[in-house]
Fold these 2 entries.
Entry 1:
Amino acid sequence: MSPQTGSRLLPLLVVAVLGAGAWAFFDTFSNIGYAPTQPIPFSHKIHAGTNKIPCLYCHSSAERSRHATVPAENVCMNCHTVVAIDKPNIQKLTSLYQSEQGVPWVRVHRLPDHVYFPHKWHVAKGIACQQCHGEVQTMDVVKQVAPLKMGWCITCHRQNKATQECSACHM
Amino acid sequence: MSHVEGGATTPQTPKTPKYWTSVADFEGEPGVRDLQSREFKTPSETPTELPSRRDFLKLLGAGAAFAAAGCARKPVEKILPYLKAPEEITPGNALYYASTCGECPAACGVLVKTREGRPIKLEGNPDHPLTRGGLCARGQSSVLNLYDPDRLKSPASIQRSNGAASAATWGEIDKKAVRALQQAAEQGKSVVLLSGTITSPSTLALAGEFLRSFPASEHVVYDAVSSDSIARAQELSYGARLVPGYDLEKADVIVSLGADFLGSWLSPVEFARGFSSRRRPESGAMSRLIVLEPSMSLTGTNADWRVRVRPDDLYPVAMALAHELLVREPRGSLSGDAAVAAAVRPFPAESVETAAGIPQGTLAALANELWEARGRGLVLAGPQAAPAAHAVGLQVAVNLLNSALGNEGVTVNAASASNQAQGSEESMTRLVERMRAGDVGVLLVYGTNPAFTLPAAVGFADAMKRVPFAVSFSDRIDETALLGDAVAPDTSHLESWNDHEPRRGVRSLSQPTITPLCDVRPVQETLLAWARFIGKGSLAATTATWHDWLKERWRTEVYPAVDAAAPFDLFWEGALRTGVVRLGTPAASPRPFRSGSMTGLPEPAAGTDRALTLVLFAPTALYDGRSANNAWIQELPDPVTKVAWDNVALVAPSRAKQLGLTGPTENVLAGEVIVVDAGHAKLEIPVFIQPGLHPDVIAIAVGYGRSAAGRVGNRVGQNAFALAEVTGGRIGTAGIAVRVQNTGRRASVAMSQGHQSTEDRPIIFESTFVEYQKDPRSGNESHDHLPSMWTRHKYPGHKWGMAVDLTACIGCSACMVACRSENNVPVVGKQVIGQGREMDWIKIDRYYSGDPENPETVHQAMLCQHCENAPCETVCPVLATTHSAEGLNVQTYNRCVGTRYCSNNCPYKARRFNWWEYSEVKEKSLRLVLNPDVTVRTKGIMEKCTMCVQRIRDGKEHAKALGIPVKDGDIQTACMQTCPTDAIVFGDLNDPQSRVAKLAKNDRGYHVLQELNTLPSITYQTKIRNREEGSA
């Protein structure tokens, strides 16, 4: 390698090192493990684990829309007009519902606005909710288990021979 | 003839004329050429403006702030689910409601797209019999009005003494109004409803019932853009006051005397549909459009034959045409009528031609052409194109021509008359007199803004002082509301119920698609409430809401008139679903022409007064200025001048030379400011050199210069309504003698075209219909297959493509606003447009050819061509712009680092760079109009047409869910959906049966800059003009 070639390669090397550094830096700040406290300590463990309520009973939009959605309060009230009405948190929920106030849930899983992720087609393909959201049925407090980053999406798409078109997710 | 040899430079085909974009471009001013050759202009070359402008623009730039991802901990975001989820709403899925556009009285059918309960876009309703899926630029814009932060949040009281407004409750306003109404009734004074045209039969009936309960009352209808002279002339000629329906799809020859039916007059979408259905060379026949006009209207730019005529010569020209047909060479049934003959005899063609300065023989040729197409022709005249003294006479002459030619009852259809223009200028001016005399006790103002649109000479503001109580139903404290006592704000057309009957026999419904965003109330509810408080008349006892009232009228009036087998409730649901029903109407039949209407018409003018004459016109974008606070409308460049955010004084090139005036050019974005002095009023306004204008004419668009529209529309341009004159109760907007004086100052003018150059490469191919019939490839002879270094892409599934028909495109620019609405394209403002940094993904370029004094025009939609060999893709260093497996050239915003190499390398100049953070929005309400399916772009990244990739996705997902293949026509881009002339066709080029695949292969199809071998996915169809060689 001539010295000239070396000096030409040097900037590339610097970029590569900086890039790798930045990658490592950003990755440490991924949101894995994010488990915020919710206004009502809703336990997926009780609902989906112990009582075996199917995910799609409450997150019914996941089959029909891009959004899985947090269920509307009237879905909670389907059961909680009779079930566990003596519990203080259910009473809190009921009073919020009756006074026509929403529950300000804290969002756990969030994709950037420039990503189109349709729950519908992933559910239709038979991908289990747990594959991205973890073993939610064991969680008292929901926490993020997957990085939800593009590399993670693409890996799965590659393995399953799904589309890798840019415009499949970015539009 | 081949395009191959010579590589980049291509010899022109003999038929291809030289195209130019302005007079400066035509004359090849060196500065212009130099500037056009540069990719990006630096801001220092453009006039600077006050820094507050930037803040103000942030108000407009639509967009939600991106959450920072990556190194920062994500912001805590809340999710508020529905309390009780509405059954029909699935978050993430759009719902469409059939409704009616309320932007203007044309009342086109729309589908309102809602997401999570908020309207985000309007689309044309394909089931509407008149507009058939088309929607104009203003209709597309009207969804933004809903979220206008300057709308009144609640009713308001106005202090008459100082015009100060204060918020009020509905209770206070009701009390005030009821007291005033009762007082007026006690004192025997009139209660007057002053409104714009109301196309809703139910609202009209309700207002009628309301007014009937007062001893003295009147409903005065006043339209600033008026068709009153037509209604008056129809009354004279045929006995009934109406504006007929015009069926352009039946017309082989259309002669327009200053009627801008494709731009702003009466029902442009319906007319564009009808007109363009007869402009298909492939069908073997083409209609012919002949325009005689003083200004250069959008209709004029589409003429096959265009003659420039002074406004005061339009009436003599129409009479001379009648003279040719009925006297010089008597033809047809009316030729024997003595009264008719006596009236037209003073107008022999030769002397009219001499006086009007048009070539001898023009009118004889025109008359022959009309006679050849008798019963299949149509003569139209602009209701405000002639001076006030001529306006009715011109329309009577037109009635005579249509009757004599047998067009009456065929293309002129009184059986299905138009309800879209009911205004009467005489009743308006009479009302002002009565107000001044103190006759009017209460004035209710609804859907009209006379304080802005009436010339000062009428004295409306003074007369208002004599009205004890005036209340406006405007959604803001506009110029008229400021002169009154209270504002009882009406809802937006997207928030309330209504019905419409744009033409007799076509009934459509409006339904609310969102709960009112402010404390506003439909005007109909307000009237019902007041009637109940007063306790008199038929409405007093009713407990019905406006919705009940409307439904009841449909039960008793509409339901029996349709042949419905279903019970009413089912019929009602069906009507809501389709949005429109047809009632049985009698077929059109010719009405006998009353030759008595020919008596008392104006005589030919004695002298020849060739002074400068003023023409005011309603522009395609702003119309009468009602939505001046809508940034999408303000930013829409005028289809002819390409000036945005301003009105200008149009001057013909020869006249400008003579007066020593210079307008804005591509490198000097400022025009000399002139004083246009009409005697009774004057205006200071920048000059714009407009090819095609009659040299005696100064033309100015109205609708600009609002003072109480809101933060966007205030003080944009000048109010040209002030220059109108009043003659015998009629309001004249044309043929006003003016003098001009140069102030020597210059004012900035921003144009959306001209900052880039085609460098004389042929990008438009055109021919004539005669030539086309001999050879369909006429004008488009070269289709070369160039050798390529690249291996062709493979498109195993779909390959999306588009066809744009230059013959069908009229330049109306509806597609531009549809694209903004669909794709969250930001508004950038005047200064940035001046820098050549407009953001539109699709724009309509307008090119002239021929003589600058009367050029031919072609409109060309320019957008990303989605090239197979895309020059942008090869230069992107970060793979942000790539080729999809379906032939789309896709842009991945989050990859883009803003090198702008792609834009530099794009031969079509179709890429747009975010120079500013347009996505920062101060006004939260404006975020609600964003399409949640499309990423909002941030500063520093490149964007461009995606062929509505989100709509393609929706179409594919829909087909996938049903397990069927995607059907041709199921996926429509936003521009294609709204196009009133069907000039844009999108589809799958891999499907040989698709419309776009057939168009891509047809003889008129060509690719722009095909010699570059970029292999665009967009095929243009040649422009075919229906003219004889050399007759232009």
Entry 2:
Amino acid sequence: MSARIFRRNATMWSGGLLLAALLVGGSALAGEAPPVRLDSTADHSKYKELQQEFASGPELTKVCLSCHTEAARQVHRTKHWTWDFLNPENQQRLGKKNVVNNFCISVPSNYAFCTSCHVGYGWKDASFDFSAEENVDCLVCHDTTGSYRKLPGLAGHPPYKDVEIPPGSGKIAKAVDLSRIAQKIGKTSRDTCGACHFFGGGGDGVKHGDMDSSLASPDKEVDVHMDATGLDFTCGTCHKTASHDVPGSRYTPVGKDKGGAHMRGKEDKSNPATCQACHGLSPHKDAGMAAKLNHHTDKIACQTCHIPAIARGGVATKMSWDWSTAGRLTPDGKPMIKKDDKGRVIYDSKKGDFTLGENVVPEYAWFNGKVSYTLLGDKIENTEGVTHINKLGGSASDGESLIWPMKVFRGAQPFDAVNKTLVTPHTAGNDDTAYWKNFGWEKAIETGMKVAGADFSGKVGFIKTDMSWPITHMVAPKEKALGCNECHTRGGRLDRIEGVYIPGRDGNSLVNLIGWIVAGATLAAVALHGLVRIVRRPR
Amino acid sequence: MERIYIFTRFERFWHWTQALLVIGMLLTGFEIHGTYHLLGFAKAHQIHGIAAWALIILWVFAIFWHFVTGEWRQYIPTMKNVDVVLRHYAWGIFRGEPHPFKVTRRQKHNPLQAQAYLMVKVLINPLLWISGLLYLYYNELAARGHHFDLASIALAHTIGAFLMLAFFIAHVYLITTGETVGAHLKAMLTGWERSDEKSAR
């Protein structure tokens, strides 16, 4: 699922330029001093320990840890490793291994596939040793070659020998060269983060809508900060990481950052990835409209105006997923795939029907950063209505909310029709119960629920679900930010936002009625008066 | 026939600039209110804001002028002869009777007219001004701990706008009720008013 199909052109370019500059600089000093790397204090290609063949990832990790003694145990403390997170605000047990979503649904019973996006090696089932330091995968985040890849089904391992994937497809995934990658190890990049985060939900751009492979090397139009020939931010520029713990999580987002810009020397434990963490609370500086725009920041998230659409980079995002239509086979019993006129998959027997969208206008909602999930075992009250996979808190009056843009992902997914709970189907696997091989929900869900340790009645139904994704990436250049007219009108973008008076949208209908009656009556009276004057005009 | 110089250069400048600004603000204001789409909210908002400040500056000068010249006395309300003027508009005007009120330099406006202008000055304008300034600055006020509800501010401002619109309609009509249809308009343009009861209509 994490196949890295793009190359990091821009960073390679800038790296190449840097190298060339260094070589020129070096030769100018003709024999006085060898060229020096300025991007790091260590050139890993010079380490004897790395100049050897490695049979497996863990073997290499042991060598990494011989110098970076604390690194693995730092990683062990993070969500990237545990896939487990206790929300301190509402005590919900979240994390990738616990939540159920309406994309690929859930991780348990599908570990060997899902963990191709785990920062470790070997998580194939519950027996995985989370305390083993050598199980940490350094390369997946620190590769600079663009050649490292982890394949679904290998439980977080990269291919150590050439493999055909999917089996029978004729497509060969080359074995990774661990030694070469290790010698070129470096900082994280848009590509390394993107190897998983661009492909969430099972493919490029599927899940987020504001993160896809177009951010590997975006131009200014797509992302004003990551602009590969401009500011060239990496993910880590905003998600400023210390001790391997990446800040800015979707489980506990910041709805309204009142703290203002971070400052060196001033201790600030707030999320460094918010807009305000750099831009402060009065970000508009241009003369003219600046003051009025700054007034909007107490009600409107920066993202609402500055990210005018979802999926702006040319990669479509999934907008809906109907699992209830999965399992239709060709007359000879084979799974099938249907594509739209742009060649995008809109039906897959394994997964059901999809709709996709590019440049989608977001939905808007008050959001205070508080998120509660419908988890496995939670009773679904209304099986006819829409179940919210995650429910976002917020209102006009709580003082903690701003109006945010959202990708609302809608779908239908299997549930336990008797116990009225979400279910965790066993989808991926080459066995007798995996849905994607056998197309039987009952067996797939039975297996999945057993692994998850949850009750299953055996009766499968389908419920409508939705899931909200606050949009925060792909910030457009300021010239492309939304203008006043988008919202200050009836039927505009914020038409359904409650609790706030929006000039151009709102008004008091009684006052309007009386006002027009008064103005109309005045007009009628003077018209009548004038008419009588004309008629009675003395000749 | 007698001609008197009734509107000084400043008064005429004040009147016509105000007329232009008020018409502009009515047009843009009702667009901001969402009544129609003409220029788009952004442009309407921009013009409305500029016109507001221009009008405020104009009014500061006008108020100053009223006090130093003593012209504010023109607006001291009286009920004397109001009935006569009302009778004229309701009856006499249709019979071709001349206006019962004789314009003088000391009393430029008939008592009904003076009352109407006074209402604009002490009721409609302050309502629009105060609500308009609150509309512009409610964020700054909130930051200083004075919280105003934007919907209420907008409501007051809208009421003011409807009253101004009604005044504007009546005013534009009533200027045609001079000795000739164009007489009052001409006076406001040139400053000179014909004041001869016997002159034929």
